[in-house]
Amino acid sequence: MNVLELSEQEIVRRGSLDEMRRRGIDPFPAAEFPVSGYSDEIKETFADEAPRRDVAIAGRIMGRRIMGKASFLELQDSKGRIQVYVNRDEICPGEDKDLYNVVFKKLLDIGDFVGIKGYVFRTQTGEISVHAQELIVLGKSLRPLPIVKVKDGVTYDAFDDPELRYRRRYVDLIVNDGVKDIFVKRTKVLNSMRKFFNDHGYMEVETPILQSIAGGASARPFITHHNSLNMELYMRIATELYLKRLIVGGFDGVYEIGKNFRNEGMDRTHNPEFTCMEIYVAYKDYNWMMEFTEKLVETICLEVNGTTEIKVGDNMISFKAPFRRVTMTDAIKEHTGIDITGMTEEQLREAATSLGIEVDETMGKGKLIDEIFGEKCEGSYIQPTFIIDYPIEMSPLTKKHRENPELTERFELMVNGKELANAYSELNDPIDQYERFVEQMKLADKGDDEAMIIDQDFVRSLEYGMPPTSGMGMGIDRLVMLMTGQSTIQEVLFFPQMRPEKVQRRDKEEAFTALGVPAEWVAPLYKAGVYTVELLSAQSAGKLHQELCGINKKFKLGFKAPLVDEIEKWIAAATLAAGE
After folding, report:
1. 120 shares its domain with 30
2. Which of 230, 278, 393, 528 has the smallest C-beta neighbourhood within 10 Å, fewest atoms?
3. Annotated binding site for Mg(2+)
4. SS (H, E, C) 7-41
């Protein structure tokens, strides 16, 4: 890497790296360091009257107070932080004191990994610490960390820019308290969910991510090409159709927790790659599944947080079962005053338009109803609420309602104004299913790019017979948002999808050398902020000369400095080139 591409601190750290190696210290050793204790457990279990405890700990240096022959450092491991007392003569028992005087005091930096062997004690100020008897360099940090400081309740130098935090999650996890806890809770959510299903006797399975038909949901898929098969494949938008094939095959209950991919918009609650759970249980209906779902969510909330009450933004949400139940028709009537019962497609389009909802000719009855509910109703349901009995046009994979054939036996669980779960009494009539698929294809012909494609193999599987079944899908990312009180999905994804990182546009070296600029001075020009020929044309020769000479001296480049007259010629040539 060109030295001019580095910051001053990065140059200093690389110098320390080289000095360590010159002293025979490997800054990136391969040998195991046997850790025997962690910060949280050491502090929790320490007792003044107990026998001395020897420990080996390892982590990052996050702070230092150097005081002559004795110093303190703050060590951060995977569980938290702990103070370490470092005495020169303890870690350097012989005549050679360079490990303390040079390595510890001068060559180690904030962010470096060290291993400490010593014993636990309490300082005179009462802080439980580790008294170091041996210090080992375990890893050199070549980039400085953004050090967040808190004084009198005020935070300084916070690493809080959302784009930087999500793009550099590894830094976010190091320096921002509480971020790691969100992801620890995420794992607890998944563990609790799996335990709940496994205790009920249901089996976790895996189904294909690359599929020949994007089925199981209404969504725009990502498309890829399989070279060996010479065919287009879709990244799955749902696991539903494969899981129901397994119910056909004889399993009583199966579930899958995995990634789905939808080539759609991104916002505070949507990421194109997201984690979803789907479960299908034979001989059950959507009424059973509602009770099962509310018990599942209540159990997860208790096991993860120890309570059923969670504060999300300004809302206090209770996950204590049972949850409220409201029909889709009643929900729309309650929030718009419009009764959609028996309405034609044209009447629904007029109703949506009268409510100020933007619609188009590609939308069928189901899409229009969905738009009305989404725009005018969904955000009102803060407490967990089951919206039930959806119109048949909205649910091509759902069994018709046993009392009203215009409706389906479907529910969505709404929490904090967003859908958390979607469930059906599954359609197991292959003739009805095929006809529903045909209706979806008509919508596709009208231009609806989210309409379902006929999955002939799935219909064939139903023709072999599928028992009465209820299925439910739940967005894991949204569930974790609720369980951790987060308002954006990016906060619960380690690495959310981001736009490409902005890179400063630079003209190539050849563009500058064509103006008469010597090749070795192109990098110093970049360092001075002159990235393009156009920028060079706008420079003052005297000022640029001064800046380039300063860079040459500061970074010890050893180049022969150009004269002001020469720089004037560069600028004149650049002005001419820019004018062309």
Report:
1. yes
2. 230
3. 412, 419
4. CHHHHHHHHHHHHHHHCCCCCCCCCCCCCCCCHHH
